[in-house]
Specification:
Elements: E1 28-30, E2 39-41, E3 48-49, E4 54-63, E5 66-72, E6 81-82, E7 85-87, H1 94-106, E8 110-121, E9 126-135, E10 146-152, H2 165-180, E11 186-189
Parallel strand pairs: 4-9, 8-11
Antiparallel strand pairs: 1-2, 2-3, 4-5, 4-7, 5-6, 5-10, 8-9
Bound molecules: zinc ion (ZN).
Domain Nudix hydrolase: 52-175
Protein name: NADH pyrophosphatase
Pfam family, one: NUDIX
Length: 203
């Protein structure tokens, strides 16, 4: 077995697979019979390696007027601020995953609220879900994926230092709903391109 060319890790792993996960043979990329998309196929054992979008689950944890954000200790976007969120694991619901990520990244105890935003990001093959949540107390214990976790008033949100556009969008929708006095479920699509982060809502 040859050593990998680079010691760097990919995260997430590239979507294109080279070897069959069932038998280890090299895969071919082509459209299977009765299909209309290119797949990674194993001509040795017949396995078809379907790839589907990944779910990212997070919360908007609130304490009175303040929002809990975490500063990332991992790439991508090391050092930037984010709502607690991460990839859905097998065997959990979206709400369970959002609560788990909040516990893992912020060490925060929360009372989960309703689903708030579903953001499609087709150019990175992801869907981001954000749930409303209420902090049960002010004891945070940031996990290894976070440098720190702290509360922000609306006018303190570090808009220029947010890690992801989905986080900025979720926060913007949240503050707009809060100003209106009622929360609803939002759906939006974040398109490809280097777009500026949303302008923070004016008070
Ligand atoms: Zn195979």
């Amino acid at each position: 077995m040859t050593a990998p060319q680079r010691a760097l890790t990919y995260f997430p792993a590239p979507r294109t697979q080279r070897y069959c996960s069932q038998c280890g043979n090299l895969l071919a990329r082509r459209i299977p019979d009765d299909d209309n998309r290119v797949r990674d196929l194993c001509d040795h054992c017949g396995a078809i390696h379907y790839q589907n979008p990944r779910m990212v689950l997070g919360t908007i944890p609130v304490w009175e007027k303040q929002i809990l954000l975490c500063r990332r200790a991992i790439e991508p976007r090391h050092g930037y601020w984010t709502l607690p969120a991460g990839f859905m694991e097998l065997g959990e619901t979206t709400a369970q995953g959002a609560a788990r990520e909040t516990q893992e990244e912020a060490g925060a105890r929360i009372e989960m609220g309703p689903l708030f935003a579903v953001l499609d990001i087709p150019h990175v093959d992801q869907v981001h879900f954000f749930y409303l949540a209420r902090l049960a107390d002010l004891e945070f214990e940031p996990g290894p994926e976070s440098l720190e976790a702290r509360l922000f008033e609306e006018d303190e949100i570090p808009w220029d230092d947010l890690a992801f556009r989905s986080v900025a969008t979720a926060l913007q929708l949240f503050f707009a709903d809060r100003a209106r006095g009622s929360f609803q479920i939002h759906t939006d699509t974040l398109q490809r391109g280097i777009e500026p982060l949303p302008v923070p809502p004016t008070p």
